[in-house]
Every structure is written in C-alpha cells, then in structure tokens.
Amino acid sequence: MKRYILVMSMLSVVLFSKVIEFDLGMGKKANLEVADRDVFVNITTKIKLKDLPNFRELEPNKNIETFLIKDYNFDGYSDIAVLSSYGMANIIRDLYIYNSDTKEYKKVLKDTSNLQIDKDNRQLSTNNRVSASQYNKKYYKISEDFKIYKFWDEKRVVDKVNIDIYNKDGKIKKSFSKKNISQISSISEVKNQYSKTTNSLNTLSKSKHSLNELSLEGGEVEVYKNSDGEINFANLVLYGETYKVEYNFYFKNSVLFFVYEVSFAYNEPMYSEGFDIDKAIKKVNRFYFVNEELAKWLDENKNSISTDDNKFYLKEREILAMSREVLAF
Fold first, then answer.
1. Collapsing DSSP states into helix, strand and coil, what is residue 268?
2. 175 exposure class (CB count in 10 Å sphere: 0-12, 13-18, 19+)
3. Model pTM score
4. Does residue 316 share a domain with residue 192?
5. What Cα–Cα distance (Å) separates residue 91 from each residue in 68, 116, 250?
6. What is the number of domains present in the chain?
7. Closest CA to 326 of 232, 262, 217, 234
8. How far is the C-alpha of 270 from the C-alpha of 292, rounded, in Å?
9. At 219, which helix (H) or strand (E)?
C-alpha cells in the first residue's frame, strides 16, 4: 500500500511539472511553468501566482484543463483561470488577471463555477448548479479600465428566484424576487400578454434614464412600472454614428416575454454633411420568449430564423443581457 501511494505521488509531480507556452498579448510571448508546489508565469521576469487552489490534489480528467489561458477582461492580455475542483455539474476555477502596468497576475475571482466569457456584451457569467431546483447565476461586467465587478446575482431555491443588482462600488442597487414558474409558456400567450401590456401602458408610472454603457454614442431608456414597482414595459434607444436602434421590452412579473426591435442604418455617418435621416434603411425584428428562452425570431420580412442558426443563440444572449440592464432601474 505504501508503494502504491508513493507511485501516485511521483506521477502527480510529473503531471504538474510542465511548461505551457502562450501569447501574452500585444505581440509578447510568455510561458506558464508548473514546478513543485508553485506556478510561475515567465515573461521578462518570473511572476508567481499567489494563493493557488489545490489543483494537484484533484483526480486527473482529460476533458478538463487545469489552466485556461484567455483574455477574460478584454484588455488584450491573457489571463489565467486555474482549476479548483469539479463535479458532475460544476467546474470551479479561480481567476487571475494580468495587470500590464504592475506586470503581475492578481486573483480577482475565487471559486467561480462554470465560468463563461461573453465578449460581445463585455460580460462574464457563472452558474453554480446545486440541484435541479437550486442554482446561483452571477453576471460580471467589465469597466472601462478593465476592472471586473459583479453586476447581477441570481439565486433560485425551489420555486422562488431572488435577484440582487450591484453598482460598480459593490453596493446593492436593487433587489427583487420572482416566481420560478412558467410566466409565458407559448407563443399564443406571448401575443395575449402583449395586448394586455400595450393596453395598460397609460396606467403605468414612467421614468427616463441615461444608459451610455451599451453604445459609444450613448443611449436612454424609459421604464414603465406597475403599482408594485415591477417593470412591465421599457423603451431602450441606442445611438451610433451610423445607426439608431430602438428596443421595446415587454415583461410579466419581471420575466421577459417579447421584444420589438426597430433599427435604422444611416446613409452616411450622422455628423457628415450628406447625412439624411429620410434615406436611412429601416428594419424590424420581433423576438418571442417562452420560459425565459428565445423561442421565435421573425426578421424584417417576417421570416423565422432557425433556432439552429448560431446568430439565433447570439441574439438571445444579447437581448437577455440588455434586459438585465433595463431591469436594474
């Protein structure tokens, strides 16, 4: 028995004594060196990763990488997510971000579960599944100076979902709850609820807010709330140099069920002398959500976009990200 333990220990040392070469970013090369109990990143100097998780004690799994080297905060430099543990539903990692000013890697997130990158919307997400009726989803935003901060924390326990929305300083901006039951379960229900919401707009309280994070030229959102303070409808307008996009979001009990999108592609940039709003190309898209998932997308010609098309998934992710921004007000 002692001989067996010794062999496994030696195998473990061999397994984690390795060098991984990678592109650091901005034309620079680097390598990650695993030696004994330490992990270093060699660039022009040797940088030690501090407060490492105990990845060496895990049983090796060929389908799970110990180190994921990617740009997690979209600053053009490679960061490192280190395996901490894994199970049937969750892969847990600690995230180290490279600081090009200090030439150091610093741990910024600990015990992230199923960490995902959403480059299009400049967000990270995690999803810790405890059981079929319990989970914890988190969404992280990236600030202009490439700092990662928690924006959305969603916890489900049985049939109730509790949501906390955070400011950049880490303070809770808004909290609310919703039932984890089907609010809208079919396209016909979407259409019926759309009519009810449209007919009730005059009874809702309105407030307008600036929302500049989603577009370089700025944006604004007007939200309509019922007597319980829930958002039933929101009109979001995003401005660009060569376009304008208007989104109408429809919610029932804080659950998105329909989005009406109108986009205008300008003939020339809006600051050009030849700019003519009457020459803008208008397109309308309709998005139907069932059980908080995009179920149907009708394009400007009212043709259905296939659910197998990759742009279907990307559009769903984009709209849900914007809906979280809207619900923050």
1. coil
2. exposed
3. 0.88
4. yes
5. 12, 11, 34
6. 3
7. 234
8. 36
9. strand 219-225
Across the range 292-312, mean pLDDT stands at 96
What is the domain extent for residue 128? 114-181
Nearest to 138 by CA among 182, 95, 99: 95
Quote the mean pLDDT of the chain. Answer: 91
Whether 106 is in a domain gets the answer no
Terminal Cα-to-Cα distance of the chain (whole angstroms): 62
Report how far residue 24's alpha carbon sits from residue 80's, in angstroms, rounded to the nearest whole number: 11
Element spanning 163, H or E: strand 160-166
pLDDT digits (tens, 9 = 90+) for 137-148: 999 999 989 999
Is residue 213 over pLDDT 60?
Answer: yes
- What is the rounded (10 degree) CA torsion for 156, 161, 165, 171? -70
Q: Is the pLDDT of residue 27 over 90?
A: yes
- Listed in order, strand segments (DSSP E) in 102-159 are 104-113, 116-118, 123-131, 134-142, 148-157
Predicted pLDDT of residue 14:
39
